[in-house]
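pls design
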């Protein structure tokens, strides 16, 4: 590390320099990043790394991030993550706050999380992902959707499903469409499940758990 710290009277502190990581670890809640390797650059208003390699729950990832105006109330950040194969539970916990890091399935692609440092309602999550045998818990279903395969696109207002196939309450099906998860959630989709038992499906829906 080569870092310089300066503060003049009541002005915000100024940090400049470079920090190099080699086999470092970083924990956030129940997420643990291992084998962090890369260079972080500091200026008076910005902290940045172009590309850093790491492992999370045994999955390789590449991270880029920038934090601007970190000493002020108007500070913003952007984090991008790319992976050739990430455990599905890591993504579902970030996007839907559901599931477990140990859930089955692999996700590849890239995601981006950005917004205000101080206001959580001014943040957004976007991405482009490929699913392989992913498990996904979605209310009001009492059991998760299993063996999901296909592609999804995520933006600030919703998720696009592109010919996603899986097992709904044990029956094979496929869906294409868009899920908008704003103040008034909407699900617009084309769903195909030729052998689905509707009576059994209704028995697996908890009508009281969700307004949706």
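designed seq:
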């Amino acid at each position: 590390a080569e870092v310089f710290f300066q503060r003049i009277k009541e002005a915000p502190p100024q940090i400049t320099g470079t920090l190099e990581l080699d086999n470092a670890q970083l924990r956030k809640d129940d997420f643990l990043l291992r084998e962090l390797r890369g260079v972080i650059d500091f200026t008076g208003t910005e902290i940045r790394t172009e590309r850093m390699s790491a492992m999370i729950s045994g999955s390789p990832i590449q991270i880029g991030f920038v934090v601007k105006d970190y000493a002020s109330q108007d500070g913003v950040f952007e984090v991008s993550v790319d992976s050739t194969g990430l455990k599905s539970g890591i993504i579902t916990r970030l996007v839907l706050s559901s599931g477990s890091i140990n859930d089955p399935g692999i996700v590849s692609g890239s995601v981006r999380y950005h917004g205000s440092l101080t206001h959580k309602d001014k943040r957004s999550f976007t991405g482009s992902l490929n699913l392989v045998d992913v498990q996904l818990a979605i209310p009001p279903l009492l059991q998760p959707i299993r063996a999901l395969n296909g592609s999804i696109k995520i933006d600030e207002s919703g998720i696009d499903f592109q010919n996603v196939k899986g097992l709904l309450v044990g029956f094979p099906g496929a869906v294409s469409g868009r899920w908008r998860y704003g103040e008034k959630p909407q699900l617009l989709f084309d769903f195909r499940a030729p052998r689905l038992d509707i009576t059994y499906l209704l028995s697996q829906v908890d009508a009281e758990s969700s307004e949706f």
